[in-house]
Amino acid sequence: PSIDRMLGLPDFDYLARSRLNPAEYAYIAHGAGSEASFRNNLEAFNNFRFRPRVMVNITNIDASLKTSILGHEFDEPFFISPFAQAGIANKVAEGGLVNGASKHNLLYISSQTTTLPLEEIAALKEEGQVIWQQVSLSTLNDEPPIELFARIKSAGMKAIVLTVDSAGDRTAYRPLRYLPDTSISRDPRYTFMTWDFYKELQSLTTLPIIPKGIQTVEDARRAIEIGAPAIFLSNHGGRSLDGSPSALEIAWEIHENDPDIFSEIEVYADGGVRYGTDVLKLLALGVRAVGVGRPFMYANMYGSEGVSRAITLLEKEVTSAGANLGLVSLKDIDASYVSAFWDLV
Ligand code: FNR
């Protein structure tokens, strides 16, 4: 279908469902175990309600969504989360993502297990475009990854996102028996991750290392104590521990128990974000920027045009929902614009 028929992020999923072969679609779409966490990532947003203010004069609305993320200026408060093998959806692979992100001055985080090698991805960057590099703890062996960090640095990536969830084996949900086994087996010798090890890794590079996969207020606080430059709340899109909380629930836990965290450090979050209203609920709780995974993988079926279309759609939704909330500027959003559904009943 013509790209103009895509009117929201979920449309790209419907397209992928009918166009990709079942094994490829299942690899991208699946969640771990019963997929309860995957579904909850989508549904948790509805456990929070907005508290819109009416009769606010929005004639001089500041439509800018500009946000600084770890000192870099971006035009959107959302970004492309790191996901493996973009080549599954399109031969252009990560190229569509890098170019789409560049067109909108959006942060792109490249996965460690991309289709194209990281140097090739880095070479696709536009002048001045900021890209971060994700590294999975589970792929590091007990040798310090000096070489890998040096490659990342010389490729011009500006930060390392260290995925700290998924320490154990993962049993993927397989909707059809004949689909390939996408479970990941870990060698237990190499799956240690202590905060001391994190410090050791940080000492190997001048690039900031941001832990991705923080899921409790305790770990958020611990990351600050250890000197993390920022934290990334995520349950890996519900693909790792079934029963793990959604990013919105983690952000709420922090908001309720240790809200200073949001001003002490930049907090990023992803999982289940499909609408502008989802972005706004996370920002309201104090999240600095919000990641989106699967929808960009599907949008990339159209290459950079599709990625660009998805960004434009999400941007429009954030802007119009912000106006309906009574926000003159996105900078004014705070926790008074949301309430938890269970507090209302
Ligand atoms: C991922 N994710 C992921 N995360 C990571 O740190 N390294 C990786 O290589 C991958 N690979 C990956 C592949 C695929 C196909 C998916 C769907 C996801 C998780 C990703 O970064 C992000 O946390 C989730 O995708 C966010 O959830 P949504 O937006 O997909 O619901």
UniProtKB/TrEMBL annotation:
<feature type="binding site">
    <location>
        <begin position="293"/>
        <end position="294"/>
    </location>
    <ligand>
        <name>FMN</name>
    </ligand>
</feature>
<protein>
    <recommendedName>
        <fullName>FMN hydroxy acid dehydrogenase domain-containing protein</fullName>
    </recommendedName>
</protein>
<dbReference type="InterPro" id="IPR000262">
    <property type="entry name" value="FMN-dep_DH"/>
</dbReference>
<feature type="binding site">
    <location>
        <position position="212"/>
    </location>
    <ligand>
        <name>FMN</name>
    </ligand>
</feature>
<feature type="binding site">
    <location>
        <position position="236"/>
    </location>
    <ligand>
        <name>glyoxylate</name>
    </ligand>
</feature>
<feature type="binding site">
    <location>
        <begin position="270"/>
        <end position="274"/>
    </location>
    <ligand>
        <name>FMN</name>
    </ligand>
</feature>
<feature type="binding site">
    <location>
        <position position="234"/>
    </location>
    <ligand>
        <name>FMN</name>
    </ligand>
</feature>
<feature type="active site" description="Proton acceptor">
    <location>
        <position position="236"/>
    </location>
</feature>
<comment type="similarity">
    <text>Belongs to the FMN-dependent alpha-hydroxy acid dehydrogenase family.</text>
</comment>
<keyword id="KW-0288">FMN</keyword>
<feature type="binding site">
    <location>
        <position position="163"/>
    </location>
    <ligand>
        <name>FMN</name>
    </ligand>
</feature>
<feature type="binding site">
    <location>
        <position position="111"/>
    </location>
    <ligand>
        <name>FMN</name>
    </ligand>
</feature>
<feature type="domain" description="FMN hydroxy acid dehydrogenase">
    <location>
        <begin position="1"/>
        <end position="343"/>
    </location>
</feature>
<keyword id="KW-0732">Signal</keyword>
<feature type="binding site">
    <location>
        <position position="27"/>
    </location>
    <ligand>
        <name>glyoxylate</name>
    </ligand>
</feature>
<feature type="binding site">
    <location>
        <begin position="82"/>
        <end position="84"/>
    </location>
    <ligand>
        <name>FMN</name>
    </ligand>
</feature>
<keyword id="KW-0285">Flavoprotein</keyword>
<feature type="binding site">
    <location>
        <position position="239"/>
    </location>
    <ligand>
        <name>glyoxylate</name>
    </ligand>
</feature>
<dbReference type="InterPro" id="IPR013785">
    <property type="entry name" value="Aldolase_TIM"/>
</dbReference>
<dbReference type="GO" id="GO:0010181">
    <property type="term" value="F:FMN binding"/>
</dbReference>
<dbReference type="GO" id="GO:0016491">
    <property type="term" value="F:oxidoreductase activity"/>
</dbReference>
<dbReference type="Pfam" id="PF01070">
    <property type="entry name" value="FMN_dh"/>
</dbReference>
<feature type="binding site">
    <location>
        <position position="170"/>
    </location>
    <ligand>
        <name>glyoxylate</name>
    </ligand>
</feature>
<dbReference type="InterPro" id="IPR012133">
    <property type="entry name" value="Alpha-hydoxy_acid_DH_FMN"/>
</dbReference>
<feature type="binding site">
    <location>
        <position position="133"/>
    </location>
    <ligand>
        <name>FMN</name>
    </ligand>
</feature>
<dbReference type="InterPro" id="IPR037396">
    <property type="entry name" value="FMN_HAD"/>
</dbReference>
<keyword id="KW-0560">Oxidoreductase</keyword>
